Amino acid sequence: MSDGLLFLQQSAAKALFIEVQLAPKPGLVDRLDNGAHNDMHLFTFTESILALQPYFYQYALTGYQHQGTPRQLFDKIRQIGQKAEKAMLTATKGINTHKGANFSFALFLAAIGKTMQNLPATFNQFDQKQIRQYIQQMTQHLIEEDLQKKEIKKRSTNGEKLFIKYGITGIRGQAAAGYPDLFDQLLPFLNGQLPIKKESQLLRGLLFLMANIEDSNLIHRGGLDAWRTVQNEAAQISLIADETRFLDSLSAYNQLLTKRYLSPGGAADVLALAIFWLIIEEKITLPLG
User: Is residue 91 part of a domain?
Assistant: First the structure.
């Protein structure tokens, strides 16, 4: 089963590498520019992914070996995740590149590792419903214990600040609900375009997310009005059928979001999870055209 765990580790890292290099991505770091980020670039993300990669294996292995409750597995991987985050910050000299992605991939890899206890030695298909349910069971306590606190910490995280100000549950809410932005929205959208073999197909997936999901990164930077504006603009760009015009519009929109200092980082994290899922289900052809 070690080959299966290694496959999961490599697939997670590969998904993050693919996501960051996709271009042009509005407001986001990609292979062409830094978007709305003055403190990070492609090589910052590269160092971050390499630092996190060994922990991806640990998440999957911990899930595969786990015999307790889903909550107990969550507590185990949270401890590993804290070490992973420290390694990431060391590699990036304190820049937060993948905090949200690290959280989500920890859950997915641990949950998939757990389901592998009952799978044959070779596999390429996972029970989506089972994994979603297990992630929900792992994280159903998060909103109550992490967000609905009587006391407000002096040093709240960005996610906690958004909950306090707007009632937005962010990544914790996504996890507790079984990642509906991924499973109910983006994957069905991408499955309608199979096989995934072109970069532009994934960029259209990003625009789909920008137009349809609650992006806590955008809201943190610009507030609700800026987020709703981006939703409307992304929806308009996504209607462009001609690929050359679509890519040109993305380039122009990148310049606009960069000027506004807006970055759809939440959408990027969901896109990375989708790429990971497409890889493990063998629905994406690499390298992309």
Answer: yes
